[in-house]
Amino acid sequence: MAYTDDAVKAKLSSLNETQESIVSVAQWIMFHRRHADRTCAIWLERMRETTVNKRLTLIYLANEVVQQSKARRKDDFLVAFSPVIAEASATAYKGATNDVQEKIRRTVEVWNQRRIFDKPIQEAVEGRIIELDKSRSGKKTGLLGGSLFSGEGSNASAPAELQPLLPLQTAISKASATSNPALSAATAEYDKLTDADRPTPSPPVYAARLSALLKTLSSAETAVAESIKTRQELIHGLEDLITTNRASLEKEQSQLATTSERREFIEKKKREVEDAIMSGKSAADTSQPAADGTPHANGRTTSSAEPERPQVEALTPPPTESLTPIHSPKFTATHNPLADTNIPNGDFNQHSPNRPFPQPTTSTPVYLENLPPQQTTPSDPRYGTTSSSDPRHGASSPAKKRKLDAEFEGFGAGEDAMAGLDDDVAELLRAESGGVV
To answer: Does residue 59 carry a pLDDT above 90?
Structure first.
């Protein structure tokens, strides 16, 4: 279908709330993006003339067109919708039900999150909706809890010093959103009518175009003048804020200098007190006279007597005897007959208690009964003195024998030790003992 005004109006009239319808009309409109300005003008005219329920569908259509244009990096419709989107949003929002208004708020929120329009355009859209909420409810309310809109939602969190400047900034955003499109349109019409390369139309047509251009230039002039006035008020408020902050800055700088001087003085005083403590001149010593009345060099008295040294217990190790267990055997040095024998160095260490005593070389067993009555074992310092007179050594000690006889008197007397054993076992034991048992 060729692009005409009637074709655009027909597409907008057939539009419904289904996604298929909105996407189909949006694709047709974006296909004819060369006529973006004319399409947006017809769209705004349709927004004004249609019913309240139909306006939400037109907002959805504009949303689909601008988001697709943003994704494809085609700015034709973004530029074309910027001058009219604030007025169209306010027209759709005014008189709508709460459900429709909530859907329009969500659409504007999406524009803000995805940065579809420039900041002044977005602020203008939000400002128009906030004004409608104020006029309807009679109290200050923000859109969507005031989380994304720069009007009332941000006033609550702004400092008190910036509160007077926020309305001025909002007014500048609105004025810019109005003046920039009007100025662009006036400049474009002016270039067309004053272009020397274009043919001059007939005088009636030329006069009508000049009259239209004059109105456009007048509107642009008024919008720019309003923007200048609002911006001057904002600058004046900013200058007052700067003056106040400069005075506060000078005061804080003076306070900083005073605080620094006080800190340096206290640090110096602290060092003096610490030096006095280290040199033994504490405040208590210098404020009271000494015990002997000895005067200081500065006229004060001090004591020359030194304090007595504390009694310190000597760290002397205890004697060795105190570490020896009670009833320990005492070592008695005796003559070692093995020392007279010729033993090579390294074969026998008489001071090594771990060296085994030499074993007898005979292959026949030695029994105590076969030893001579006066035979004694050699004396060795490792084992102490052994002799026949020592009752602790020797197999035939009379004292031990008397003790054993006394304790086991009558044990086995007159009895056969082999009684009760088998004959072959008893004979074997008698053979091994040599007939003693």
So the answer is: yes
